[in-house]
Automatic annotation (TrEMBL):
Protein origin, superkingdom: Bacteria
Protein name per the record: Ferrous iron transport protein B
Family to which the UniProt record says this protein belongs: Belongs to the TRAFAC class TrmE-Era-EngA-EngB-Septin-like GTPase superfamily. FeoB GTPase (TC 9.A.8) family.
Chain ranges of the FeoB-type G domain: 1-162
Residues shown, of full length: 1 to 269 of 711
Species per Swiss-Prot/TrEMBL record: Liquorilactobacillus oeni DSM 19972
Binding site for GTP: 8-15, 33-37, 53-56, 113-116
Cellular localisation: Cell inner membrane; Cell membrane
Binding-site list for Mg(2+) 1: T22
Entry function: Probable transporter of a GTP-driven Fe(2+) uptake system.
Length: 269
């Protein structure tokens, strides 16, 4: 039995897609937070794959119950695949969660939803390039209109239970070196494929993780010093350093794969 988790921002179309993939009729609502309890069902025609609709979240911080449920499921249950439902009309904001999903090193497929809406705007997203830059399969779909959902289903079957092929998003070098030093303190305590996730969470001073992982006083102090040094260098708090690093990375990617209609008009005038 394989488990495929649907993750994504609230209102990105997770439940609509869940219904398409499973043939279920979960209530779809045009407001955030409808999926409080997570729902599951078989991938239609495939009794060996269970689809799990997770609560919508913008982040994997431990601040809301949705975030806690979603990240607990991802980090502890380790699904065989995560399908990240990205609202193409809000690409930048949605990619913020995508990057965090990539920090878990779980196998990932991005379903770029609402392409029917983007089509009517001046924006063009080069999906192949987005996929190449992320190192993750990206399928443009419309869950509402059932466009490309069959192709997504194929990707789900092909990628479930495989190893993640993407590289971790690489942030500012000074941040990377701090994360590397934290990882060294966690080596032997945290499984190697989870080191990136835990190093970032320790760096962010994530309370849940600091409480959950038992470290001796020396390691704790060492990590505190690494964080403190980074905060001095960046003149910023550690959690903001990470937020900024993710948004910088997103800006770079979006700059390479999105064309605005205005780009053409400006170059012609
Ligand atoms: P969730 O919060 O992620 O579960 O999102 P929902 O499935 O509840 O969808 C939120 C709203 O977006 C609903 O009104 C859906 O009908 C609509 N929606 C979902 N997918 C699409 C799509 O591909 N295209 C369009 N135009 N609307 C969509
Ligand atoms: K909703
Ligand atoms: Mg929902």
């Amino acid at each position: 039995m394989k488990t495929v988790a649907l993750a994504g921002n609230p209102n990105g179309g997770k439940t609509t897609l869940f219904n398409r993939l499973t043939g279920a009729h979960q209530m779809v609502g045009n407001w955030p937070g409808v999926t409080v309890e997570s729902k599951s069902g078989y991938l239609q025609g495939e009794n060996s794959i269970i689809i799990q609709d997770l609560p919508g979240t913008y982040s994997l911080s431990p601040y809301t119950s949705e975030e806690l449920i979603t990240r607990k499921f991802l980090v502890e249950k380790k699904p065989d695949l995560v399908v990240d439902v990205v609202d193409a009309t809000n690409l930048e904001r949605n990619l913020y969660l995508t990057l965090q999903l990539m920090e878990t090193k779980l196998p990932l497929v991005v379903s770029l939803n609402m392409v029917d809406v983007v089509k009517n705007t001046g924006r063009r997203i080069n999906i192949d390039k987005l996929s190449y830059l992320l190192g993750v399969p990206v399928i443009g779909i419309s869950a509402l209109k059932n466009t490309n959902v069959a192709q997504l289903k194929e990707k789900i079957m092909k990628n479930s239970g495989t190893e993640a092929k993407y590289h971790f998003p690489e942030y500012d070098k000074r941040l990377e070196s701090a994360l590397m030093m934290i990882s060294k303190n966690l080596a032997g305590i945290i499984p190697s494929q989870d080191l990136r996730w835990y190093a970032i969470k320790f760096f962010e001073r994530d309370e849940e993780i600091w409480q959950k992982v038992h470290l001796d006083a020396t390691r704790k102090e060492d990590i505190e010093n690494i964080i403190g040094t980074a905060e001095k260098i960046f003149e910023d708090s550690s959690d903001s350093i990470i937020v900024n690093a993710r948004y910088e990375y997103i800006a770079k990617i979006v700059g390479m794969c999105v064309v605005e209609k205005d780009d053409f008009t400006m170059s012609l005038s």
